[in-house]
Every structure is written in C-alpha cells, then in structure tokens.
Specification:
The protein is mainly alpha-helical. The chain has helices at 14-26, 42-69, 74-99, 101-117, 125-155, 158-169, 196-247, 254-306, 310-349, 358-371, 387-407. It is found in: Cell membrane.
Length: 408
C-alpha cells in the first residue's frame, strides 16, 4: 500500500513544478528536479520531433488548400491562414522546447537548490507560498481552458458524423456515396478519401494532432515559462526579505552577510539568463507570428459574421482570444521578473547601510548600482519582452489589418 511519506508538501518545489513535469513527460521530455538524470537523449525527444514533422505536413496541405480557394473564397482562406499560423506556433514551441530541454533540466536543478537552501522565514512564508499557489492554479486553469477548447472543437464534428451514419444506413438509396468533406482540419489532401474507414482514420489522427499540439505543445511551453519566472521572482523576494533583516540589525557578521547576498544575487541573475536562453526562440516566434494571427482572425470574424456562419465565428473568436492571452502571458511574466530585479536596489537603499563602516558602504553602493540595471527577458536579444512589447504587437496587428483592408 502506498504511503504519503514522500508526497511533496507546499513547502517543496515539486509540489508546484510536478504538474509541468507531467506535461513534459507526456510528450517524451522526461525531466526531474534531481541531478544526474540520463534520459534526455534523442529517443525521448522522438515523439516531439515526429509530431513536429506531422505539423509540417499539415502546413503543406494547408498551403495547398489556400492556393486553390484564394481567388474564390477569401474568408475561408483567412480561416485556413489562422489555423496555419497557430499550427506553426505549436510546432515552434514543441521543437524549441525539445531542443533546449537539457538547459531546462539545469534550471530545474538550480531552482531546487535555491528552494531547499533559502527558505522564507515564518513571517514571510505565507506571502511567498501565496505567490507560488497563484501561478500554480493559473497554469492548471490555462491547461483546462486549452483542453476544453480542443474538446469543443472536436464536438463540432459530431453532427457530421451522425449525418455520415445516416448516409451509411441509406447507402443503397444514395448509391453508396458519402460526404467526406467535413473534417477537423482545414486542409486539402493530395488524394481522394475512398471509404468510411479511411475517413475515420483521418478524422481521428487530426483529433489526436489537435490535442497533442494544443493541449500539450502550446500549454507546456507557456506554463513552464510562468512557473520558472514565478519561482525566480519568489527567490528575489526572499532575498529582499533577508537583506532587510540583515542590514537593519547590528552584529559582527556584516561582511559575511554581504558576500552571501552578492553570491545569491549573482546566482539568481545567472538562472534568469538560463531561462532566457531556453525561451528566447519560443518568444521570438510568438511575437513574430501573433500579430499576423490576430489580424487574420479579425478578418475571419468579419467574414464569417457576414456569411452568418456563427460556428466558424466562434472558432475565430476563440483563436483570437487564445492568441492574445498567450502574448499577455509572456509579456506579464517577463515584466514581473524585470520589476523584481529592479526593486532589489530600492530594498538595499532603504536599509540602514549608511551607518556601516566605509568599506561595507562602498560595497553596498556597488551592489545598488548593479541592481539598478534590471534584467530584461529578450527575444534573442532583438527586443525586450514586457508591457511595451504587448502594445507593439497589437499595433503591428492593426497595421496588418489596415494593409489587408487597403488591398481589398
């Protein structure tokens, strides 16, 4: 019988990161908070790479469909283009996450060490754990929202399957002809669907790909970024609490405390840099593609409303909201880490450091000067991510939209 002896508690990092570790394991990227894990080879990344190749094949078929209907139905072409951009975003997340999983493993190990070594005091424990719980709950809600959207999208096909069953019952009267045009993916295959088993096989592989990419690729990268940033920010908060407690008392350990604080600050910045290295390619692809996705969804919403096709309108609205939520997700958490690194200088400055001896005051002034330069999470160093970047993405989406309106 299993016991709860080894179950993680809310004071353990695994309690919060365990959900993300399960998501990564479901796509073959098995990670651990412990060191010396030797299961991150090519064989573990193979499921992710296979689904990325699957997505690229879908991308080709989507382009094939756009080419055929562009001149006759631009509204449908915009819907396909929206699906195509979302598909590329999912592929990018899966591929870049698999490519950088070893570095992510290092981040896990570093965070585990910090969580075990520098725990919050009893006075601040409730505030720290509240921040961890909020992000943990938000990530779970985010996962179930994406999962619900995927299931709802699949349920839209149920009436078509009932119609197909009705056609099969009346197959002799219908001269054994069936309608195979209704599918989950807006793609055009380079072959005809000859029979019902082939149709069902195509439908279920599309459903599996939709679930795998939307509920796993999409969510894994986003929630992993949120959790990583949150726990580093919490470590910055713990450091600020410790600084306040250390420099507002008189003892003979000031120099040793100062050395420890400098080392902790340096380690936290190093982990921030590791997180940036892991997520920079994902963030760059999101920022470049999200503006286009928002634009084509607005065009698709207008077109489907004009045609009174409200089911497709709902799909476009859902993709629009998820794309916007994704941008907001990354910009908000990236801004959070910049604010935490910036506020560290204020914490040190507000302490009683001016009453220390000259040597300590000099070192503290150097720390303040270093902390005044906040850490910015960037997209491969091209531009920092934050609330300002959110405005830039929305302005770019509006520019794309106006350009399309001018072309029409």
């Amino acid at each position: 019988m299993k016991t709860s002896v080894n179950q993680p508690t809310e004071d353990d990092l695994e309690y919060y990161i365990g959900f993300n570790l399960k998501l990564l394991s479901s796509i073959g990227l098995k990670c651990s908070l412990e060191k010396n894990l030797k299961s991150l080879g090519l064989i573990n990344k193979l499921p992710t790479f296979i689904m990325c190749i699957h997505g690229l094949i879908f991308f080709i078929f989507e382009n094939y469909f756009i080419r055929d209907i562009w001149s006759s139905d631009k509204t449908l072409a915009m819907q396909i283009l929206s699906q195509e951009v979302s598909n590329i975003q999912c592929i990018s997340k899966g591929f870049f996450l698999a490519f950088a999983i070893e570095r992510m493993q290092n981040v896990f190990q570093e965070m585990q060490y910090l969580w075990k070594t520098y725990r919050p005091s009893q006075d601040n424990r409730k505030k720290i754990l509240l921040g961890a719980h909020q992000t943990f709950s938000f990530c779970k809600i985010y996962f179930f929202v994406l999962l619900s959207c995927s299931i709802s999208y699949f349920l839209c096909l149920i009436p078509s399957l009932f119609n197909l069953a009705q056609q099969y019952r009346n197959r002799e009267a219908n001269n054994y002809t069936y309608d195979f045009s209704q599918r989950l993916g807006l793609v055009k295959y380079p072959f005809e669907i000859p029979n019902i088993p082939t149709y069902l096989l195509i439908v279920f592989q599309e459903a599996f790909y939709l679930f795998y990419t939307a509920a796993l690729f999409w969510v894994s990268g986003d929630t992993l970024f949120a959790q990583s940033v949150t726990h580093i920010c919490l470590q910055f908060k713990i450091l600020k609490y410790d600084i306040d407690a250390t420099f507002n008392r008189e003892d003979m350990r000031d120099h040793l405390s100062l050395v420890t604080i400098v080392k902790r600050h340096r380690d936290l910045l190093r982990i921030c840099k590791l997180i940036e290295e892991v997520f920079s390619p994902i963030i760059l692809s999101i920022m470049l593609l999200s503006s286009l996705n928002l634009c084509v969804n607005v065009v698709g919403i207008r077109g489907t409303i004009a045609k009174e096709n409200y089911q497709e309108t709902a799909i476009n609205v859902t993709i629009f909201m998820l794309t916007f939520l994704q941008i907001l997700f990354y910009c908000t958490f990236a801004e959070k880490i910049s604010e935490e690194t910036r506020s560290l200088a204020d914490t040190i400055y507000n302490c009683d450091w001016t009453v220390k001896n000259y040597k300590l005051r000099f070192y503290i002034q150097l720390i303040i000067m270093r902390c005044q330069k906040p850490f910015y999470c960037t997209a491969y160093g091209f531009f920092p991510i934050g609330h300002l970047q959110l405005t830039t993405v929305l302005n770019t989406a509006f520019s794309y939209y106006m350009m399309l309106q001018t072309m029409n």
